[in-house]
Amino acid sequence: MTALAVVLLFVLIGGGGLGSWLYVRSLENDVDKVDAFQGLQDEQRPVRAADSALNFLVVGKDQSEPSDTVSRTDTIMLVHVPHSRDRAQLISIPRDTWTTIPQSLPEDGGGPTKAKINAAYAWGGTPLLVRTIEGFTGVRIDHVVLLDFAGFGKVIDVLGGVDVTVDKPFTPMAVPGRVYQPGVHHMDSVMALDYARQRKQFADGDFSRMRHQQAIIAAVMRDASRKGVLANPAQLNDFLRATAGAVQVDRGLSVFDTVWDLREIRADDLTMLTSPTTGVGMVGDQSVMFPDMAASAKLFAAVKNDKMNDWLAAHPSAVNPN
């Protein structure tokens, strides 16, 4: 999942009038803030090449098993909002991407090391993940939003479930023996999050998982608008409270100001992409994803310079359906 989707959900609700905007403003203090950029030195960070664009690092944290003692960063996305503020590109970065982490654990020497990209969060929290993503992409991160999977499930339940487009036959772990065939299916939170987590049953593994997460993001945004949450004050309140409880943001992000700034964006204005890779391989006993460095450099240069329209025109097949 992506936490920017939750911020955009505020947008969908906020577009309904003064009362809805007052709701959003009242929830500002209910959204937890984190020190996402603590310790980052400005001279070590990428320059901001396009001041009028916005780049969000969005992270989905999951604790899906009762035996889990810590949250895992199962979802990492770079979300680019161009200067026009009328669309957004969501770029999933595989969690197993093999790259350089700027700082390792003290027992491993503390210096830079190669590892899976999501190790950065486990080793150094949000600030180290920001450093790692900035180093990997060359893109300056403006804001960070973190989403708790369980909290996002509550958002889905308030909507009464969502209609999700299934692209390949899917056997949910939550309901053994049931098979979802390709097509549109109504899912409650348990089923939707099950669909978002699964990768081993699909031939392309983590790529399917990322596409399915993106499909659920689009479904939640569409259903929040389509189901007329605005017309039901009680449901509106439940929806916004659940949304606020699902996210954490960096201390410099104003939810109200961001909602206002992105108010023109709707579900159909989202373009879903995946960071280019050359495929899966082994490093020691680890299964990892190798980035396509040349293709990635072109993609992220377009993000950095706010030239994604040109890049998309040249790479139409890179877009994931939503």
From TrEMBL:
The family this protein is said to belong to: Belongs to the LytR/CpsA/Psr (LCP) family.
PANTHER family: POLYISOPRENYL-TEICHOIC ACID--PEPTIDOGLYCAN TEICHOIC ACID TRANSFERASE TAGU
InterPro entries to which the protein is assigned, alphabetical: LytR/CpsA/Psr_CW_biosynth, LytR_CpsA_psr
Name by which UniProt lists this protein: Transcriptional attenuator, LytR family
Taxonomic superkingdom: Bacteria
Domain Cell envelope-related transcriptional attenuator, chain residue ranges per copy: 72-224
Pfam families (UniProt xref): LytR_cpsA_psr
